[in-house]
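hey so i finally got around to running the thing on that chain from the lab meeting. sorry it took forever, my laptop kept dying and i had to restart like 3 times. anyway pasting the input first so we r on the same page abt which one it is
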Amino acid sequence: MNTLQQKINEYRPLGDVICQEITQAIQKLGLEELGESGYPVFEQADFRLVVDPYSRCEDLAGYWYGAHKRLIGQIQFHGDGSFYAEYDVLKPHPTKKHYFIDVMNAWGKEGYIKTEPKLLEMPE
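ok and heres what got predicted. didnt touch it at all, straight out
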């Protein structure tokens, strides 16, 4: 088994939990559907090994693509056990009429996962 597949297998349980947390955070905002891209699924990411320019560690990075190979989300697992993820939402905020939800961010480490929507003002 190569290094990439070993890292995918190593991070799969945490990746599945992160995807569930992102999905639940989006649904808590009152958005049940995200259109053709759907919610993030760990197994559906396109994975690569990347070198973190700060730590120089080899990180596992996953990318989700939508129609026409448009990037719709990414996740990166760092050598210190932490991670960062973001996934496109691109929907009007259900209660804040002047804002839309750009992405749902997630970060933390195993046992400590935080999510936060990134809101942007609606263009006029």
